[in-house]
Amino acid sequence: MTGSTVRPPAYQLLADELREEITSGRLQPGERLPPEPELCVRSGVSRSTVREALRLLASQHLIVTTRGVTGGSFVAHPDAEQLSEALSTGLTLLTNSAEVGLVDLLELRRAVEIPAAGLAAQRRTDAHLVEMRGAMFDPDFDELDTMLAAHAAFHAAVVSATCNPLFELVTRPLYHVTYGEEVVEALPDGYWTRIDADHRDLLACVRDRDAAAAMEVGRRHLDYITEAMAR
Fold it and tell me: Which of 44, 57, 177, 179 is the most buried (most CB within 10 A)?
């Protein structure tokens, strides 16, 4: 009937209830969920409905299920990479719609990457420098796909050097979003040469622990990318 509200399936309602217990902290990481028979009684649903709800939560990396005498469903310990994958999926869906555009993505990158560059310069280790150097590319010889991947890897390495996993969680999805072939193919001549030069400047600032200069290079870098993609 027009205007009527469709009630979600029973497994979805149970999954939502359990998810709220997990995200609120009432169920802590590593804690065991009530066994299936207890969930059936508590929720008034069948065992197959309970199992479907648990499968949904497992697919969202909120619980892990083990078998055996000591098995069961347990609240998963937070994993930044898995959480970031979930964010990346959502961000990709948004960018494929009319709700989020290139300008929005670059604005978010600006808000996160510039302070991250400063923190990286203050906190980096020698291992972080090795990771950043390993993500450099050669604009004269490398293919486009190689440079795109290296660009993402370099900025991920800078963010890793902040030693703040929340920066990694927020920024990692940004580097998995594609700008679209029409944008990439319209980049101005010398674009990748400039990107490479900016990366080398930023690496030098991080190496020298110059936070102010690192932030300025990060700001200049994003100014250039924004201008190039707006053409």
Answer: 57
